[in-house]
Amino acid sequence: MKNKFIKYKEYSFKKHPSIESIQIINGKNNFPISWLNQQGYCEYQIYLQYMKGIKTQPTRAMLKGTDVHSQLEEEFLKDAEEATFNEVLESSKKEATISRECFVISADYGIRGFIDEIWMTPTEIVIIDDKPGSRAFPSTINQVRAYCLAFKKMSGDERQIKGALRQRGTDNIFWSEDFDANVEKQIKFTIDRMHSLFDGQKPFIATKNPNKCKSCRYQSYCEECKL
Question: What is the pTM of this model?
């Protein structure tokens, strides 16, 4: 497979007046896809961090993840060829390619983010999200599903799309699935819920799992914490 670095394309947006990191594109809220991982862990974290503006220090695991991620990106770029999104799509129909840190965005669904790695072959597209462990949680599954949705919408490509989770820093793909109509329906439902939170139509729900609360960075700030 050839390494292809997809050039980031600028786009126009407005900042949300009160929610940090929410962008307004074509009159619709647009949130980072990574928030779906946080939402599956505890929705209330999103409220505390981005609506109340509470800042905490990054955990050791977060810092390590950033470091490993940077190392992988640096290694990839050593022999990567630069190309546009459409150029890579077209060339991959004849020759398999790998791309990292591919930016995807959908104004219609109100999501955006950077995909860790994509394999594009003449027959299929595999969208990979790297995680520190080797267990597929609903939250991490939702995140990679949203990447698949945004990629499908942005590309209009008819090849089979697969979502996959890989243990960070290894070749261990420990979970994968076809991004079919049923999966697409499920992630659209979750994304709609996220938008209803930001629009104030529904309340943010805190986790009921005390083990999550014990390890939460926002524990001391959370009025919902029962510890």
Answer: 0.94
Amino acid at 71: Q
The class level of CATH for 19-217 reads: alpha beta
Q: What are phi and psi of 80, to 5 degrees?
A: -85, 140
**70-113: per-residue pLDDT in tens?**
887 888 888 899 999 999 999 999 999 999 999 999 999 999 99
Identify the three-state secondary structure at position 31. Answer: strand
Using an 8 Å Cβ cutoff, are 183 and 177 in contact? yes
Residue 179 has φ and ψ, to the nearest 5°, of -85, 85
pLDDT tens by residue, 102-134: 999 999 999 999 999 999 999 999 999 999 999
Give the count of alpha carbons within 13 A of 70, CB side only.
Answer: 6
In the structure encoding, which two tokens stand for residue 124, read together? 């299929």
**Beta carbons within 10 angstroms of residue 7's beta carbon:** 12
The position carrying tokens 């939460």 is 216
Q: Quick one: how far is CA 56 from the chain centroid?
A: 21
Smallest CA-to-CA distance from 48 within 227, 219, 191, 226 is with 219
User: Which among 197, 204, 208, 199 is positioned nearest to 48, based on CA atoms?
Assistant: 204
Phi, psi of 178 (to 5 degrees): -75, 135
Q: Which residue has the tokens 């979970």?
A: 175
Q: Measuring CA to CA, which residue among 186, 185, 136, 138 is closest to residue 164?
A: 136
Residues 97 and 3 sit within 8 Å (Cβ to Cβ): yes
